[in-house]
Amino acid sequence: MPEAGPGAAAGGCAAPEAAAGPPLGRAALPAALGAGPREAGPHGVGQRGLGRRGLLAAGAVLPLAVPALRPGAAQAQPAGVVLEEFLVPGGDNGVQLYLRNKRPEAGLPSGPGRTVLFVHGATYPASTTFDLPLAGVSWMDYMAGRGFDVWSVDLRGYGRSTRDPAMSRPPEGGAPLTTPDQAVSDLAAAARFIRERRGLNKLAHIGWSWGTTLAARFAAENPTLVEKLVLYAPVWTMPPAPADAPPLGAYRSVTRAQAREQWLSGVPDNKRAGLIPPGWFEHWADTTFATDPDGSRQVPGVLRAPNGVMQDFRENWGRDKPGYDPARLSMPVLLTVAEWDRLTPPDRAFALFPLITTSPGKRLVVLGEGTHTIMLERNRGTLFQTVQVFLEEPVAG
Known about the structure:
The chain is α/β, with parallel strands linked by helices. It has one domain (26-392): Rossmann fold (3-Layer(aba) Sandwich), CATH 3.40.50. 25% of the residues lie in helices and 17% in strands. It has 11 helices and 11 strands. The chain has helices at residues 29-32, 139-145, 180-198, 210-221, 256-264, 269-275, 280-289, 293-296, 308-315, 346-352, 380-392; strands spanning 43-45, 81-89, 96-104, 115-119, 149-154, 203-208, 226-232, 251-255, 302-306, 333-338, 362-367. The strands form 2 sheets. The chain has a 9-stranded mixed β-sheet with strand order 1-11-10-7-6-4-5-3-2, sandwiched between helices. Strand 2 (81-89) and strand 3 form a beta hairpin. The longest helix has 19 residues, at 180-198. The radius of gyration is 20 Å and the shape is globular. It starts with 28 loop residues before the first helix and ends in a 5-residue tail after the last helix.
């Protein structure tokens, strides 16, 4: 679905949240990102190895006066970073998308290469994943501290965005919610809002897990609107679902115990204790599950997630029917994946990499000692560094 170029700027915004808390200086960042003797350096394919050089790389819009979007115990922002939040029209009438923005207090960066949109995966919203402060710093904080204008979007059915009424009913017998077409249309709407608000022709896009399929499809169909593309834990073709797999239903529910068990799958036993620093998983789970108040009231509490993604995996990716053509990715592309990722293992990134034939600058980086969720683990700095180096490099030509 090709996307139209930028038009008139959209209106309606919240006042910036005042910066507070410790400075986001470069000298303070390594400790906040988990740097130390346990840090594993990334190993590159198609790029120079980064080694251990350190963690720093060389409708109408509703304002955020909406009480439901302002929890009382708001996290203080690092000094020098401004937070804004928005509800913007999604890809269909009646759908509102929650956008979160972090940017330097000193002023907006110039150029599309320093404006970035994050897209989440199959189960967890962007707002509590890319902007979760751990040791005082989130990934979005890190990028804003490097002078980037950073955005994330919760697709429909996730986080603080519109939920279909069917999610308030039992899932059995319901059609899987948030289809790939709907998700891509929401991504397109979010990107269009950002381009128009900032007066830009294009942005950099970062997708995680299922979000890589959405971001890559959008980029393949709208190459003039994407400056650079980062596919973190990229999905590619996968084994088919069992023939006797039960019907999916409208959505699925995940408990905290299930989330933690899946998170640690594939991690060697002698590495599990040190993978996630104390309190980090609990902070993530508290923040993430709180975005689903109805699910949190169940015993045990659950997070409900739409099943359109699972239908996509069954009917397309599990039947060797990719949702986009990698040869149409004509912008610089970074693939990055962690060695212990069992949901999107490195071999899928290796299968995808040679199919990206028209990119003027592609690379594949495998990160040591991390899982599918390395961005919330002790070694998250290796991911942040790898992506930052790629984004800060000039576009060839």
